[in-house]
Amino acid sequence: MAATTLTPTRRSTAAPAPLKKTVRILKYVVFYGCLTLIALVFLAPYVIAFFGAFKSEANLFSTAPWSPPHSLYTGNFKTILFSDDFIRYLGNTLLVTCALTAGQVTFGVLSAYAFARLEFPGRDALFAVYLATLMVPNVVTIVPLYTMMRQFHLTNTYWAIFLPYVLGVPYTIFLMRQYFRSLPSEVFAAARVDGCSEWTILTRILIPMAKPIIVTATLIAFVFGWNNFLWPLIVTDSNAKQVLTVATAGLQSAFNDQWNLVLAASLVSLVPLLVIFAVFQKHIVRSLQLTGVNR
Amino acid sequence: MHVTALRHSRTATAAQDGPPSRKHRTTAGGARRLGTAAPFVLPSLIGVAAFLLIPVVIVLVLSFVQWNFLTPPRWVGLANFSTIVRHDHVFHALLISAYYVLWNIPFQTVLALALAMLLVRKMPAMGVFRALYVLPYMSTPVAMAVVWSWMFNAQNGLINHLLLLVGVHGPDWLGSTSTALPVVAMVNTWQYAGYNMLFFLAGLLAIPPQLYESASIDGASAFRRFTRITLPLLNSTMLFVLVTDIIGSFQIFDTVYVMTQGGPGNATNVVNYQIYQTAFQNFDVGSAAAMSLVLFAVILVVTVIQFRFFRSRITYEIA
Hints:
heterodimer, A: 295 residues, B: 319 residues, mainly alpha
């Protein structure tokens, strides 16, 4: 390189300054180039689904998957969103997921508070039982749960879909308990001395202090409810109570391999989670790290 | 886990300052405390009992009966388990699951660690890339499996279109016994690599930079610093990531259901899918219950082995 010969070398081992700079810039370019390439691989399915969803069927099969649609063809979304079924699945999913989330967080907060801040006989033994249930694989309880739902004539109801998860689940109770215990105990002691009831302490002191973990628990519950597949697949068998995941899994056969419609429908079912991710991105990343290593 | 202790010292000290449990407790006081706590605990206690504990008892009972959900169940003793031993379809499904774990976990873990090591640097825009890599974790597995089926579509999919550019006629990925399982595993690697990266990032950030500095001064190569500092100090993170991922991998269902339905042939007929079919398509409840208990046992054994392995290695307290 011409520049190197012009620069006097101060030390024989160190590279001349301009060369060093070039190397550094090159390193930056390679580094960020790699990161961008990896990001492209991670994003590819979304992009390809997006492109496909805005193409007509003829267009989809005549153009390359990576070429953006010439014009935004919205016919696929019209077909899906104007079909009564799809709107019903969307409504069912929202209803069931919101009920599940509200119950799981409310009852979870209550139990976590008791396990973290109240003293009662058998507390630690009971908590150990909760922890032990974390080891039971999902599939082990699916068959008996289904037989129970049949026994109580609850199959094919909204209740059946969210009932097993609505009263609080050990995992989020554990997360919240750990967080509640980390809060300074003097505050709670002072409130008790002042004669506050446990309910007042919970609603006026604990919940405001524990907002981050409650948001985390809410997100975990919502994403779980929205994504839940195996259980709704088993416990519902009518169109009336079907949820989005079960419908999505049947898209290919339902639309007879009209991939433009299939992709549009998948995209619609992904949108709520994408919005949640965009809004809570920082929070999600932080809380996932926290929850994971603490588990 | 010592990483936890380091990162959340608040949590560690708080562990002792919960309500002190006193040995001398009057019965009346205990009853009163129970009365105070009951409204808080009862809802979740009912939930855990009804939807987790009782089902485990029921599944044990069901594994000893023959039942099709309709006619009265018939006690058959250990017949369901002896069927599992005699016919190799369950063993075969377990083997498929094991293959799946082997296709999924090594790639996923190495990729997650590599991504974490890229993003651990203090440079601009790291947060943006971190978010982009985690994004797949936040999407519905069923919907993404549909999209990936389109990407791997033999005639019109992205993958085969790209291969055509370099003159290769790609296979029917999901329709061929040799490629279907690796493809399903790859989809899950795509979905969870970024998520696991977060844990490795947390682990890497907990390693004191002075260790690397003094190792460099002593002339340790980058490879040696990685094997002698990074890996040993990531021991507990690695244990956590592997244990949770392998438990999850053994229970893969959604992706298989959407992309391959267990096929072609039996190529992707993993245990969970087999249990689902046995119970809800063949209505052989007893066999399905027995199979789910076998899966439970396998997962427990694999988990215990991992704990043994990681415990036997030296861990360093850096707190």
